[in-house]
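Re: that backbone. Tokens:
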């Protein structure tokens, strides 16, 4: 039994140009022509490109082949328009469409091309363009990680996820953060670290519910169900506990199915149906201790559960075939083969498992391939034993050939397992985790330090404002006092001194108040600062002379 986990994509509806395509009712072509007719200069009309993209985005799961044609046209059109943002988005879309088809090499090629343009945009002096580039980087890095995860290259996947998560947290983009947290959970899930996987899935689910994002919520409900399903499989020797975990898994899957159907997301529906099939398959395999008189009913129950599982699997298989989802097809073919194997339908099991392995090899889906090779090896091992006991097996050869096939597929299983779980990769993942934890701690430290600096700057600014206000008030009072003492008959030197002191303080206060601006203008060059101070003195000196004459005149009248 192989559970299919959801690998989540977050894509903005990007501009795409749709090549004329014929659907069953012809309505798609009519919509495209209608949009084109709205603008005769559509080749440079980015609004029209976005409208066509929205139309294309709606059909990408139902018709990925047309979506690929659409993506190629969009890349060409964006280049003609010399629109970098459009080019990056179009290349990213095309990468996504290839991923849906299971063409990982082309998916990576287009993602990296888009990533290069996003890096250029991030360096723009225009803040809006730079932010757009940074957001594109976060999305692209996450989607590159998804492809590597599908190829079971977990160290690379984790590296790209953590790079993406760091940018998403800097942007404060909660939707993007939720998707990345969940996909990091996927990596730990594939590695068998279910506690860490559940930790990341629950964080992602909580954030998605806060955002009221049904698509994200559906994904993480499905994946939490997967964790419980795998845990149930691990403890199937304790049937009561295992059955309890299967109940939990089923509840999460049913919640996910409701949302997937509301969203009309055929790919998500197929995934959940496949996993519901896994629940029924696992229930049928639980080794309950049944009294002899109840065994017949128990066998009927097991048959009923297997039939229900097969029903779920074939519904999901049909949807994935309509979508052209090779990854999903391989997964379900293998699960059908596994179920037939446990039911003792060995010939059917062999056919479906071989189909699954062939497809897995063609798309380099190592994790699926590993598990199906192991099941097929066990199947041939069982057949070899049955043959040696004299069991007649229609369509099969001698026990020696079975042993040979069992050994070949066990070697294939071991090779795939070593490729996924070798020691170097485990060390790489450990280093990547440590690096991410360090970067997150460092980012948190810098944020706290910047906040402390901001608070200190704010406190200094408030203090300076109060002090400047007090000084200004003091100077004002000093001038009032000067005019007040003018009522007395003072000697000339006293008049000059009473005017000189307030203006000296005023000049010094002006220097202190204007110094930051003078430094900014003069770049703290001594000569230029001297000139600026001289200009300030030249402004204040005439005022000083004027007030001195005014004061002497006032004293003379008294």
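Recovered sequence:
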């Amino acid at each position: 039994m192989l559970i299919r986990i959801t690998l989540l994509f977050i894509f903005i509806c990007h501009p795409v140009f749709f090549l004329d395509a014929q659907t069953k009712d012809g309505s798609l072509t009519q919509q495209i022509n209608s949009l084109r007719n709205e603008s005769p200069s559509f080749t440079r009309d980015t609004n029209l490109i976005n409208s066509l993209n929205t139309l294309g985005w709606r059909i990408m799961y139902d018709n990925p082949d047309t979506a690929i044609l659409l993506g190629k046209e969009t890349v060409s059109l964006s280049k003609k328009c010399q629109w970098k943002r459009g080019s990056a988005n179009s290349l990213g879309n095309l990468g996504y469409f290839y991923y849906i088809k299971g063409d990982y090499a082309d998916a990576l090629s287009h993602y990296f091309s888009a990533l290069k343009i996003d890096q250029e945009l991030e360096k723009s002096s225009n803040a809006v363009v730079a932010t757009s580039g940074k957001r594109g980087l976060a999305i692209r890095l996450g989607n590159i990680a998804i492809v590597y995860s599908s190829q079971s290259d977990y160290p690379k996947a984790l590296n790209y996820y953590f790079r993406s998560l760091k940018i998403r947290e800097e942007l404060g983009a909660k939707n993007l953060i939720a998707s990345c947290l969940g996909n990091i959970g996927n990596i730990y899930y594939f590695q068998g670290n279910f506690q860490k996987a559940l930790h990341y899935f629950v964080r992602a689910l909580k954030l998605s519910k806060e955002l009221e994002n049904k698509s994200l919520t559906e994904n993480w409900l499905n994946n939490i169900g997967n964790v419980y399903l795998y845990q149930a499989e691990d403890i199937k020797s304790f049937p009561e506990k295992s059955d309890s975990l299967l109940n939990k898994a089923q509840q999460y899957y049913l919640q996910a199915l409701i949302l997937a159907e509301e969203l009309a997301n055929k790919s998500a529906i197929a995934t959940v149906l496949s996993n519901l099939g896994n629940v029924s398959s696992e229930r049928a395999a639980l080794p309950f201790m049944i009294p002899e008189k109840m065994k017949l009913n128990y066998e009927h129950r097991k048959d009923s559960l297997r039939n229900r599982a097969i029903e779920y699997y074939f519904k999901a298989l049909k949807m994935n075939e309509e979508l052209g989802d090779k990854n999903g097809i391989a997964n379900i073919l293998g699960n059908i083969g596994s179920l037939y194997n446990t039911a003792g339908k060995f010939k059917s099991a062999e056919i479906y498992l071989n189909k699954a392995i062939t497809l897995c090899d063609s798309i380099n889906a190592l994790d699926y391939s590993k598990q199906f090779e192991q099941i097929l090896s066990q199947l041939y091992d069982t057949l070899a034993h049955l043959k040696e006991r004299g069991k007649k097996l229609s369509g099969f050869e001698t026990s020696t050939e079975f042993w040979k096939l069992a050994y070949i597929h066990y070697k294939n299983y071991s090779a795939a397992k070593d490729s996924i779980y070798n020691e170097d990769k485990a060390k790489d993942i450990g280093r990547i985790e440590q690096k991410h934890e360090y970067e997150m701690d460092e980012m948190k430290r810098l944020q706290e330090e910047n906040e402390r600096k901001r608070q200190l700057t704010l406190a200094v600014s408030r203090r300076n404002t109060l002090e400047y206000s007090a000084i200004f008030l003091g100077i004002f009072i000093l001038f009032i006092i000067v005019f007040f003492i003018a009522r007395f008959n003072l000697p000339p030197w006293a008049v000059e001194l009473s005017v000189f002191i307030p203006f000296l303080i005023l000049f010094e206060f002006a220097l202190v108040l204007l110094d930051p601006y003078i430094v900014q203008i003069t770049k703290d060059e001594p000569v230029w600062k001297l000139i600026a101070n001289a200009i300030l003195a030249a402004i204040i000196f005439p005022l000083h002379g004027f007030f001195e004459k005014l004061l002497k005149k006032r004293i003379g009248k008294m």
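Confidence is low (pLDDT under 50) at residues 7-25. The longest helix spans residues 423-485.
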